């Protein structure tokens, strides 16, 4: 391995620029005509971004350090990080075989057109006044971007690092040639750069080797090998360091560690080889991720950052000043081809901060922080994305914005969220059940609890799923998603391109193999509801249970830990002794129902009042079987209620109760377990349906009675009540379907009931609709 010599900018020995044979109008085959105009420099007046100098101890924990500085530095959008003095790095790119032997592609950037240009589709007008000098060859092929009608950078020459350094030196020497102020200071280079961008007088073309994937030159950092992992050398420490950008995205504490694919530029770093004025224009990172950039060698880069809290304001300012460009390309900022003056941004109330990144320094950008900049001379940098847990809410906002813009995602936010939740469950269980305490599980458990970052992120996602499934799930079949649904191919909404890892809708009739998100189900097709379905990876009950596990509910934690911890046939019980777990008390329905409890001896007595949710009212049918003295049975009626799960009576789950037309038989009553469609019970009456459910629950309880204490068989249930036919609000809605009282038997009996109530004939204080049920030693009234 031979280190190369980076030529100092003070050395002005002219090198041969004609290294490769290429098109005659390419920059490297032309003399540099433009010259520095120091009297007209336009260096913006800006505050500097924070500069961090972590100690050796702080530097060892990358994510811990970033969490420590986040609250203050996020206000600037970017910050510089200077490693400790004894942290050294051997750059892999200095090997002779790479430096002299490997070529990389470049782009040609017209710096004078980054801001001052006309829309591509605007008709050319005769020039008025002075026009900047340009070299143009009408026979020169247009770039792919130009032929599509959009402004973009043309493909440039291929260089080795050695060749690029020579050309970069030639350009800078020529551009600043003849001025007594040589070498120009960084401040003077910055002023000249913005003069070219804002008030160009000449054409200025430069090369930029940007977004170089791993297979081109590889990484500047050495990667870990099994052989080196056993050694304690400086090289081994460099390979294992979290600041090695090959390791950073998947280090503990980053939710990107739950993405299995090696996404280039996100989880696999890219290289950037620049020269004086090589530019990266205003942009935010994909999915509003963090990014970390390291300047391996060469001359400095000047960065500009805007805090994420002002991202919308920056977009508004640029659209105000560049209306024609945005009218032509509404997604202009996604193209990274438009620069904009920090001075104008500050005048519009957008805070902009400067960072001068020297070789051997990192620059960190925060979520949705717009950033831009340029190189002051030949250099080589490397960058990758990262996602500490605090990124999760930013990522959720990003995919919502992508969906609105129908923009393709590069990773699955839901997959990362579920992965983070599972890791937290595992860490919680290690602490509570095994008594294991280490840096990793302490970090993950710090994001749990009712107000934890991961818990809150999952709650928000659950509410979103719940609101949509209730709309579409009422008429569509609700099916469990296959585990490998999106393992072998991307699954995205046909309308908005939203990732479909958690849920999807489809149609078995007209669109096999195509899916939409729950928000755009009707963009897929308008077939009958019976042909359409909703796929869910986890039921709403399961996601709710996962939230409770993150909050520390022991039963839910044990359930999910057994699923998450691979290779474990059973989950260990907590090492510390606990008071006996009272199943009776713990199985009370959620607070959304009318629940009152009192402790009586060794048993918990609760009043169980079924809380029915009306999904669909249905259509009134005049006929003897479509009503009785107590209730009206509309065709198509649907309701939803919680009751003990027939597969696991230790849990409460949702059931769908519905009425369908069975022809001459009249109404057919059906009850289906929402999370498991195969558990369905049908009969000619509501009572018989729910008695079938009750029987299944009782049978399951009997199986467990020899293993569990205080388990008793259920005694009875009221089918009309479970359907919702005794709920006052539902009764009122049903009666409104028959304003002319055509269901004679029902209305006559109602008059009798009303009359009896007025004369206080019913002396019992208990409702006749409440039947006594006994479960786990609890009387359910």
Terminal CA distance: 82 Å
What is the makeup of the main sheet? 9 strands, mixed
Indicate the proportion of strand residues: 15-25%
Radius of gyration: 34 Å
> What's the average pLDDT?
80
Fraction of residues in helix: 25-40%
Number of helices: 24
Low-confidence stretches: 1-21, 123-149, 567-609, 760-781
Category from helices, strands and their pairing:
alpha+beta
What's the arrangement of strands in the largest beta sheet? Answer: 2-3-12-9-14-7-6-4-5
Number of spatially distinct domains: 3
Named CATH topology of the largest domain: Jelly Rolls
CATH class type of the largest domain: Mainly Beta
CATH homology group of the largest domain: Cupin
Structure description:
- Residues 49-90 form the JmjN domain.
- Its main location: nucleus.
- Residues 1-26, 115-147 are annotated as: Disordered.
- Residues 122-138 have a biased composition (Basic residues).
- The protein has 781 residues and is of the alpha+beta class.
- Helices cover 30% and strands 19% of the residues.
- The chain is built from 24 helices and 27 strands.
Task: Give short descriptive properties of this protein.
9-stranded mixed beta sheet, 3 domains, 5-stranded mixed beta sheet, Double Stranded RNA Binding Domain, Jelly Rolls, 24 helices, 781 residues
Short overview:
Its main location: nucleus. With 781 residues, this protein is of the alpha+beta class. 30% of the residues lie in helices and 19% in strands.
């Amino acid at each position: 391995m031979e280190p190369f010599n980076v030529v100092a900018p003070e050395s002005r020995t002219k090198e041969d620029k004609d290294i490769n044979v290429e098109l005659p109008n390419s920059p490297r085959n032309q003399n540099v005509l433009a010259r520095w105009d120091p009297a007209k420099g336009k260096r913006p007046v800006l505050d500097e971004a924070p500069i961090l100098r972590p100690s050796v101890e702080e530097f060892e924990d990358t994510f811990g350090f970033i969490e420590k500085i986040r609250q203050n530095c996020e206000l600037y959008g970017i910050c510089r990080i200077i490693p400790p003095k004894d942290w050294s790095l051997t750059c892999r790119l200095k090997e002779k075989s790479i430096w002299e032997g490997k070529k990389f592609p470049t782009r040609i950037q017209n710096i004078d057109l980054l801001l001052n240009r006309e829309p591509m589709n605007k008709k050319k007008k005769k020039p008025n006044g002075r026009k900047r000098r340009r070299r143009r060859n009408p026979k020169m092929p247009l770039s792919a971007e130009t032929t599509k009608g959009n402004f973009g950078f043309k493909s440039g020459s291929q260089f080795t690092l050695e060749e690029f350094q020579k050309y970069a030196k030639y350009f800078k020497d020529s551009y600043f040639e003849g001025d007594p102020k040589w070498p120009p200071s960084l401040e003077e280079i910055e002023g000249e750069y913005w003069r070219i961008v804002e008030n160009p007088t000449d054409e200025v073309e430069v090369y930029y080797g940007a977004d170089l994937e791993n297979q081109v030159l590889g990484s500047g950092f050495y990667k870990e090998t099994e052989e080196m992992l056993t050694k304690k050398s400086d090289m081994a420490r460099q390979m294992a360091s979290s600041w090695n950008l090959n390791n950073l995205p998947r280090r503990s504490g980053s939710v990107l560690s739950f993405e299995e694919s090696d996404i280039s530029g996100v989880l696999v770093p890219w290289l950037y080889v620049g020269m004086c004025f090589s530019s990266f224009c205003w942009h935010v990172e994909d999915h509003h991720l963090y990014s970390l950039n390291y300047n391996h060698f060469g001359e400095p880069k000047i960065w500009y950052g805007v805090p994420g809290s002002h991202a919308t304001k920056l977009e508004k300012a640029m659209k105000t000043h560049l209306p024609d460009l945005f009218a032509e390309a509404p997604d202009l900022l996604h193209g990274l081809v438009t620069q904009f003056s920090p001075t104008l941004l500050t005048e519009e109330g957008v805070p902009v901060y400067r960072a001068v990144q020297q070789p051997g320094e990192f620059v960190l950008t925060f979520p949705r922080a717009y950033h831009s900049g340029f190189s002051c001379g030949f250099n080589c940098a490397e960058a990758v994305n990262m996602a500490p847990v605090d990124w999760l809410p930013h990522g959720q906002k990003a995919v919502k914005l992508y969906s609105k813009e129908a923009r393709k995602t590069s990773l699955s936010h839901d997959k990362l969220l579920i992965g983070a939740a599972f890791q937290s469950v595992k860490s919680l269980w290690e602490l509570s059940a095994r008594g294991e305490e280490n840096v990793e599980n302490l970090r993950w458990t710090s994001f749990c609890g009712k107000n934890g970052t991961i818990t809150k992120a999952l709650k928000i996602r659950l509410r979103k799923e719940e609101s949509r499934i209730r709309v579409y799930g009422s008429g569509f079949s609700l099916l469990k998603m296959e585990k490998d649904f999106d393992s072998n191919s991307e699954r995205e909404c046909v309308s908005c391109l939203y990732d479909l890892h958690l849920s999807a809708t489809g149609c078995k009739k007209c669109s096999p193999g195509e899916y939409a998100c729950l928000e755009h189900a009707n963009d897929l097709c308008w077939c009958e509801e019976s042909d359409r379905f909703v796929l869910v990876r986890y039921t709403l009950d399961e996601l709710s249970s996962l939230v409770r596990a993150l909050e520390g509910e022991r039963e839910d934690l044990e359930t999910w830990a057994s699923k998450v911890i691979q290779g474990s046939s059973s989950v260990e019980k907590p090492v510390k002794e606990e008071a006996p777990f009272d199943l009776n008390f713990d199985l009370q329905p959620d607070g959304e129902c009318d629940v009152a409890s009192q402790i009586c001896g060794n048993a918990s007595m609760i009043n169980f009042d079924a809380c029915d949710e009306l999904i669909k009212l249905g259509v009134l049918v005049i006929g003897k079987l479509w009503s009785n003295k107590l209730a009206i049975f509309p065709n198509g009626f649907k309701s939803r209620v919680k009751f003990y799960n027939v597969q696991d009576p230790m849990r409460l789950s949702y059931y769908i109760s519905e009425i369908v037309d069975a022809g001459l038989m009249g109404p057919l009553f059906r009850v289906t377990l929402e999370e498991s469609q195969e558990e369905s019970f049908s009969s000619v009456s509501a009572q018989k349906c729910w008695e079938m459910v009750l029987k299944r629950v009782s049978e399951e309880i009997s199986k467990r009675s020899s293993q569990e204490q205080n388990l008793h068989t259920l005694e009875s249930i009221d089918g009309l009540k479970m359907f919702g036919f005794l709920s006052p609000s539902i009764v009122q809605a049903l009666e409104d379907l028959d304003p002319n009282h055509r269901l004679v038997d029902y209305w006559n009996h109602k008059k009798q009931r009303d009359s009896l109530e007025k004369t206080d004939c019913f002396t019992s204080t208990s409702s006749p609709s409440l039947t006594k049920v006994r479960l786990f030693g609890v009387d359910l009234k």
